[in-house]
Design goal:
Layout (H helix, E strand, L loop, with lengths): L17 H6 L4 H7 L5 H11 L2 E2 L2 E2 H9 L5 E8 L6 H9 L1 H15 L1 E9 L3 H16 L8 E6 L11 E5 H5 L1 H7 L1 H5 L2 H8 L1
Parallel strand pairs: 3-4, 3-6, 4-5
Antiparallel strand pairs: 1-2
Helix pairs in contact: 2-6, 3-4, 3-6, 5-6
Length: 200
């Protein structure tokens, strides 16, 4: 099980940057999805079988709702980086931001979302700067043509989905999507601690 590292420093230390993430096979699963090796229905099925929970309950229910909605569709991802509830989410972003981004992009692809808004509430300036820099690297080396636009926002800025069907997920939920596809739904379903983190 991939550990969640709770960093004590206010500045991100030891984050897995874009180059390091690619070196360990990062975005491989996303590319397999785009290439048709993994179909969107398979992703939705795996998420459902895993028992992964999202902001409003079982993640698969929300994914299926948006997947079946009229186009265009959007996605909104929320992460708290302050307070007791935000410790785990901040740790994920500080330690392995691209794992979060890959899960986010797989989810957006699976439901057909054409744009993504990533909203981070609170957190130190170093975290914000790191996320902006790593997203810029991702845009410069897009895993595939036509990757959705990712807009990074901070604090309590209101949603801007313009009334579009929108998938709303927390960063903890999306972090586990690559693991579910790599290790299988049964593996994740057996990890009680993972389920607790994802549904927090």
């Amino acid at each position: 099980m991939r550990p969640v590292v709770r960093l004590q420093s206010p500045a991100p230390q030891g984050a897995i940057d874009h180059a390091a993430y690619l070196a360990r096979g990062g975005y491989r699963l996303l590319k397999r999805c785009i290439a048709g090796e993994i179909e969107s229905d398979m992703v939705l099925q795996s998420v459902g079988d895993s028992g992964l929970r999202g902001v409003h309950g079982p993640a698969a229910v929300e994914w299926e709702r948006v997947h079946g909605a009229p186009t265009p569709r959007a996605m909104e991802v929320c992460a708290a980086a302050v307070g007791p509830a935000g410790l785990a989410e901040r740790a994920l972003l500080e330690r392995d931001p691209h794992r979060c981004f890959e899960g986010m992009l797989i989810a957006a692809w699976a439901v057909g979302a054409s744009r993504i808004r990533l909203l981070v509430r609170g957190g130190p300036a170093a975290l914000r700067a790191m996320l902006a820099a790593e997203l810029l690297k991702l845009r410069d080396r897009r895993p595939y043509p036509g990757m959705p636009e990712i807009v990074l926002g901070f604090d309590d800025a209101p949603p801007s989905d313009d009334g579009l069907p929108t998938l709303r997920q927390g960063i903890q939920t999306l972090y586990w999507v690559p693991d579910i596809l790599e290790r299988g739904a049964a593996w994740f379903a057996s990890q009680a601690q993972c389920r607790r983190w994802a549904s927090a």
